[in-house]
Known about the structure:
Elements: H1 2-9, H2 12-22, H3 36-39, H4 41-61, E1 64-69, E2 75-77, E3 83-88, E4 95-96, E5 101-105, H5 108-164, H6 172-227, E6 229-231, E7 236-239, E8 248-249, E9 257-261, E10 271-275, E11 288-293, E12 296-308, E13 335-341, E14 355-361, H7 365-368, H8 375-386, H9 388-409
Antiparallel strand pairs: 1-10, 1-14, 2-9, 3-5, 3-8, 4-7, 5-6, 7-9, 10-13, 11-12, 11-14, 12-13
Helix pairs in contact: 1-4, 2-4, 5-6
Amino acid sequence: MLEFILCSVITILPDWIFRTRFQGKRWGQEITFFTMWYELRWGITTCAILTVALITVVFYFHPSTTNVLSYFRTITILSEGGGRVAEVYVKNHEHVNKGDPIFRLDGASQEAAATTARARIAEVDALIAVGQSELNVAKANVSQAEAALEQAMDEYTRKNTLFTEGSAAVAAREVERLENLVAEREGGLEAAQANLDTVSDRVRIQYPAQRASAVASLEQAETEIEKLTVVAGVDGHVKQFALTVGDYINPILRPAGILVPTGAGSGFNQFQAGFGQLTAQVVNPGMLAEITCMTNPLKIVPMVVVEVQRHIPSGQFRPSDRLLDTQDSARPGTVTVVLEPLYAGTVDHVPPGSKCIANVYTNNHDRLDDPDVGALKWVALHAVDAVGIAHAAILRLQALMLPVQTLVFSGH
């Protein structure tokens, strides 16, 4: 309507003035509602053509969208494993600080595993104490075997010397018996030494390894017990939290609730706008923009384009067991544009998640300063920049009518 009114000023109005002032035709006689088309056909036709052209230029070079949001991240309240709720420490909408417990799952099996691990540690400690006694016994056995071997060798050496010198006091059978006794005592010493090594390795290597394994099992069990208590990772407010004792929680299928971090979205100051695909070649980083939001009506906030996402979300896919059919994606996706406030603090009053309307304006100032630009192109670029004021006026009318449309006509 605004574009039509502007175009009629330079088309229909001059035609009507020419008919009335120079042709002598009068409104209500020669010019009526029934003869209007015939009398003002040139002005009406020109106005319609200019209106369509103006609307096309305005909406192409100064695109607008009602799909503008300021996104913020929430945290899902989940346990690392499934289980039944044993205790609930907070209520819905309650504020929690980082590290505060939220709920605890039943941990009978984990407690049993921890008790078993502690018993195993005590058992290994007892084995180590017994092993020390066995080690002392093995050392005594080695000493005893060494003494017996030394005694046998002394006796064998003495009698073997007498036998060699031809003494009749020692028989050859006695020397052989002592020789066998020395061999037996040597075997006994080797067996005692082997037993000492075995006991020593058991006390020094096997038992400590068993104890370390038991300690690791205990630590694992205690870690699992700690995981049963879900705590807040950040300061925030608990939302959609209706957990009761006895509920079953599953980290994949049944989350417990949502934690909205304190100050979520504040300080981020970024708005995501979805523009039509026709604007993909027009909207670029650095362009100026304006938004007005439902949470703060009657106010226009100057913005600037900081990023343009060159991937349209409607084209994404994940491999599956069937081929994609393009006709299933009939709705065209939008070009995602990231906006930030031009001046600091201008969007602090806009709550995260607000629904907004945005305009982006093409600026050809640098191109107009280029001396190589032709006269016709210079006029066209000037016209493109000038008609942006029409879209700015439309945005202000939208901001003015937004409370009226929402509260009066829609009943919300």
